[in-house]
Design goal:
Order of helices and strands: EEHEHHEHHEEEEEEEHEEH
Helix content: 25-40%
Strand order of the largest sheet: 6-7-8-9-12-13
Bound molecules: zinc ion
Distance between the termini: 36 Å
Oligomer: single chain
Length: 200
């Protein structure tokens, strides 16, 4: 209902998989994993908003995969009932975080590295996941095509999100494909040129 983008990455050799932001529709994610003969090894949460984390415990239970999240979002995660109230949806089962996703944390799947970049501002624990060998960035709700994440919710900071984007994301290769938490994908180069929030 909230239309959050969930990404599933699978390694063709090891058949290992990594899922980012299982907000909901866990049945569909399990189906994709099964269809491709993948075993889920990592669940990564870009930030603790309900539409990104809501299905994490269900997916963890179904697969046994550990959940990675930045500890600076713990407070938000503990307000899941409040978040559910904002949206008028049922409170999802609370998820136990297994490991911290910190700046410089690296998850390795076969020959592919997934690097955690701390990009606070949308929330205090917001991270982006950079996959250099795939020219890809999973940006959570930090950077969107033509926009940036909202900062008017608890934990949001409008100066901080701009600093994160300029310092952590704009220096990535221009051809890097950005997969945002909502809406269509883009590239670092395109956003640098036309994103109205990043000009001047
Ligand atoms: Zn969000």
């Amino acid at each position: 209902m909230l239309q959050c983008n969930c990404s599933v990455f699978g390694d063709e050799e090891t058949r290992e998989a990594l899922v980012v932001d299982p907000g909901d529709e866990i049945g569909r994610i399990l189906q994709v994993l099964k269809q491709h003969g993948l075993t889920l090894k990592w669940i990564v949460i870009t930030h603790a908003h309900i539409d990104h984390i809501g299905g994490a415990q269900k997916l963890k239970k179904a697969t046994g995969a550990p959940v990675y999240m930045n500890p600076n979002d713990t407070e938000l995660q503990e307000m899941m009932d409040v978040q559910a109230g904002w949206l008028g949806v049922p409170t999802p089962e609370a998820v136990e975080i297994d490991a911290p996703a910190m700046d410089g944390s690296k998850l390795v799947m076969g020959a592919t590295e997934f690097l955690v970049l701390e990009t606070p501002g949308h929330t205090q624990g917001s991270i982006s996941l950079w996959i250099p060998s795939e020219n890809k960035l999973v940006a959570g709700d930090t950077l969107f095509r033509d926009s940036i994440g909202r900062t008017d919710l608890p934990g949001g900071d409008s100066r901080q999100i701009l600093r994160s984007i300029h310092e952590k994301l704009m220096g990535l290769p221009e051809e890097t494909v950005v997969v945002p938490g909502h809406g269509g994908s883009t590239t670092i180069g395109r956003e640098k040129q036309v994103n109205p929030f990043l000009q001047g």
